Amino acid sequence: MIASAVTAGECQVWWADPRQETIETLVGDLSANELRRAARFRREPDRRRFLTGAWLLREAAGDRLGVRPADVVVDRTCPDCDRYHGKPRVVTEEESLHVSISHSGDRVAVALTDVGPLGVDVEAVPETPVDDLARCALTESERQALAALPEHARYEGFARIWVRKEAALKATGHGLRISPDRVEVTGPGESPALLGWPVDVPPEAVRIHPLDPGPGYVAVVAVVGGDHGITIREADAALLRGRAGIATARQAA
Questions:
Q1: Residues facing 119 on adjacent strands
Q2: Parallel, antiparallel, or unpaired: how do β-strands 231-236 and 10-16 relate?
Q3: What one-character DSSP code corresponds to residue 105?
Q4: What pLDDT is stored for residue 84 in this prediction?
Q5: What is the distance between the alpha carbons of residues 202 and 92, in angstroms, rounded to a whole number?
Q6: How far is CA 210 from the centre of its chain?
Q7: Which CATH number does 1-115+234-253 carry?
Q8: What is the pLDDT of residues 174-195, one digit of tens each?
Q9: Could you tell me the pTM of the whole model?
Q10: Cα(50)–Cα(102) distance, integer angstroms
Q11: Of all helices (H) and strands (E), which one includes residue 239?
């Protein structure tokens, strides 16, 4: 994986393990709104995943913008209510920076690009039967594609279909307010692509790119707009720590 500042026509995805950082590190640069939302999680693993995503977003965006993580302005206003749980948006005066966060198990991902709205999704491969999930989340053709797989391969197959749907819906900000069975994507053995959905964005305008989250997980990033030349770069969050210190020193100077 290669780490570098996001350049034009590029999407960068940062990976972190929520078990690696101390709570003191995770909360040090977060806003009062982020801390209040974290406090609402009852389970410690869920709280850690949220905190890691919020921390990583600030680290990655700060690296991109050349500012301290604490100075990154993050807006999570929900379009449907007054709760602070909407799609994250980095507020800048000059630069258009689109971001997305996802987490599952021991994987947290933050994606950034200047190409257009994007959604990243990572999921742990299910360890239990997925028949009930498939009936309510997949279209008829997707269920047929899943049923054609050997039984042991259906768990990962379902996850591959699911992340494509969720990443596309996250890119537009709709999320699961649109039922996933109304979104059609390619089968698990095909290159990821959006085929149809009830959104006023042509399916061909959404590019879905596979990611490498490691064994036991599947992930993609969906980007709206741009051309076929977008470059996807993945990197470990550990590479941001030294950069954050450099950015702080530059600002202090």
A1: 222
A2: parallel
A3: T
A4: 67
A5: 28
A6: 12
A7: 3.90.470.20
A8: 988 999 999 999 999 999 999 9
A9: 0.90
A10: 9
A11: helix 238-252
CA atoms within 13 A on the CB side of 131: 4
CATH 3.90.470.20 fits 117-225, yes or no: yes
Contact call for residues 134 and 146 (beta carbons, < 8 A): yes
pLDDT in tens, 50-79: 999 999 999 999 999 989 999 999 998 877
> 216: helix, coil or strand?
coil
CB neighbours of residue 144 within 10 Å? 11
Show the tokens assigned to 115: 């190409």
Return the C-alpha torsion angle 241, 244, 248, 253, nearest 10: 100
DSSP assignment of 133-199: HHHHHS-HHHHHHHHTS-GGGHHHHHHHHHHHHHHHHHHHT-GGGS-GGG-EE--TTS---EEE-SS
Residues of the chain scoring pLDDT < 70: 1-8, 82, 84-85, 226-228, 242-253
Q: At what angle do helices 140-147 and 154-172 cross, to 10 degrees?
A: 150
Q: What pLDDT score does 245 carry? A: 42
Would you kindly state where each structural domain of the chain is located, as residue ranges?
1-115+234-253, 117-225
Six-digit token string for 187: 């089968």
Q: What is the number of other CB atoms lying within 10 angstroms of the CB of residue 156?
A: 18
